[in-house]
Design brief:
By secondary structure, this protein is an alpha/beta fold. The chain has one domain: 3-Layer(aba) Sandwich (Rossmann fold), CATH 3.40.50. It has ten helices and eight strands. Helix 3 links the parallel strand 1 and strand 2. It starts with 15 loop residues before the first helix and ends with a helix. The structure holds NADP nicotinamide-adenine-dinucleotide phosphate. The site of NADP nicotinamide-adenine-dinucleotide phosphate has 29 residues, from helix 2, helix 3 and strand 2.
Amino acid sequence: MARASQLLPKSSHLTWEAAASSPLCAGTAYRMLVGDRGARMTQGDVVLIWGAAGGLGAYAAQLVRNGGGIAVGVVSSPEKAERAREYGCHAVVDRTEIGLTGDAPADPTVVGKRLGKRIRELVGDDPHIVFEHVGRATFGVSVFVVRRGGTVVTCGSSTGYRHEFDNRYLWMRLKRVIGSHGANLHEQASVARLLDLGLIEPALSVTYTLDEVAEAARLVQTNRHTGKVGVLALAPRAGLGVREKGPVRRGPSEDQAHGNRT
Ligand SMILES: NC(=O)c1ccc[n+]([C@@H]2O[C@H](COP(=O)([O-])OP(=O)(O)OC[C@H]3O[C@@H](n4cnc5c(N)ncnc54)[C@H](OP(=O)(O)O)[C@@H]3O)[C@@H](O)[C@H]2O)c1
């Protein structure tokens, strides 16, 4: 059961499925990157985003771009690289080209050096923040590649939750690891407002009917999806629930006008 105080209004320009597909990953990515308990991203920060064409990654890339950061996405195919750029990544690295194709590399430092070199070539800097959720396969590389004093923020471990990393890089270079889970109501409301304003957009890439749910799950299980995969539960068909044409984007001048009137 949900209390009324736990509910948020649905954006009037979004379909049911687009609105429903956003809160989990948008809220989680917001807390990880922007929240007081997260990495507290600031303007110009270079943010490395694993799985930048996936569910969390799609919102992370948009939030970094919207917040004045420089998003470097990691993906595993040219198609996903294209999606990641559409979501807002300034630069994209295909992990298959740096030898990250499965479980954790035998020596994360070797792969970390390869990735670090690539990132510096692309954006001229080491990452201030690494956006982690892949876990075992990437965590050692994340701790290595984040800059001195930088932050690895994690909310998951899809490839295994027993991580190995070389602690010398963490302590000698004064790095931090932050754990993050979901979002509180304030963070969720903040990200819902960004969706409302059209400053970030739902990352729904495909919608299935309820009797096709197994195919939807298989698509995600085999890592062939991008963004979010929708499944209709109560809506009889896709595309319903829209009450207004576009987002309620209010420019600064309009805000100013409201201010002047009071
Ligand atoms: N704690 C929380 O509040 C919270 C909230 C939401 C999600 N999560 C967790 O976060 C994780 C990701 O969720 P999601 O919705 O973003 O999943 P997703 O849509 O499946 O995206 C995960 C991405 O990880 C990348 N990936 C998969 N295997 C990899 C590997 N071996 N090395 C490097 N990258 C790999 C894939 O990108 P490429 O193949 O293109 O590299 C994929 O797009 C899950 O474990 C989920 O449970 C936690």
